[in-house]
């Protein structure tokens, strides 16, 4: 993939995020984020922002659709863009969930910023 294509993709996701904010799908002051029915590109862009700016999302409630992944004691939710070429993950703290790995699920939880890293806590399935 050329540098020009990468720049095009990044700018595209930024524009999608701006449209999502303009459409009222998300405002930074909301205490709840519902990404369950969001367009995959919007959900992906939002998760990228959550991971990049964890303090902005600390203590926010979230409902999110993604692929549950677990390896040992580590679990995460993986969110893909519409083209299935890019993804971002949010680690799940204390993942005692009885979910089949790599299954598409909807999770609810609270985002927590710990040492400038975001985690999903108090998760329900």
- CATH topology, by name, is OB fold (Dihydrolipoamide Acetyltransferase, E2P)
- Mean pLDDT figure: 86
Fraction of helical residues: 25-40%
Total count of domains: 1
Sum up the overall morphology in one term.
globular
Percentage of residues in DSSP E strands: 35-45%
CA distance, first residue to last residue: 37 Å
Which SSEs are present, and which pair or pack?
Layout lengths: L2 H20 L9 E3 L5 H13 L8 E11 L2 E7 L6 E6 L10 E12 L2 E8 L1
Parallel strand pairs: 1-2
Antiparallel strand pairs: 2-3, 2-5, 3-4, 5-6
Helix pairs in contact: 1-2
Salient structural properties:
125 residues, alpha+beta, OB fold (Dihydrolipoamide Acetyltransferase, E2P)
3D structure, described in words:
- The structure is a single chain.
- Helices cover 26% and strands 38% of the residues.
- The mean pLDDT is 86.
- The chain has one domain (3-124): Beta Barrel (OB fold (Dihydrolipoamide Acetyltransferase, E2P)).
- It contains two helices and six strands; from the N terminus they run αβαβββββ.
- By secondary structure, the protein is an alpha+beta fold.
- Helix 1 crosses helix 2 (40-52).
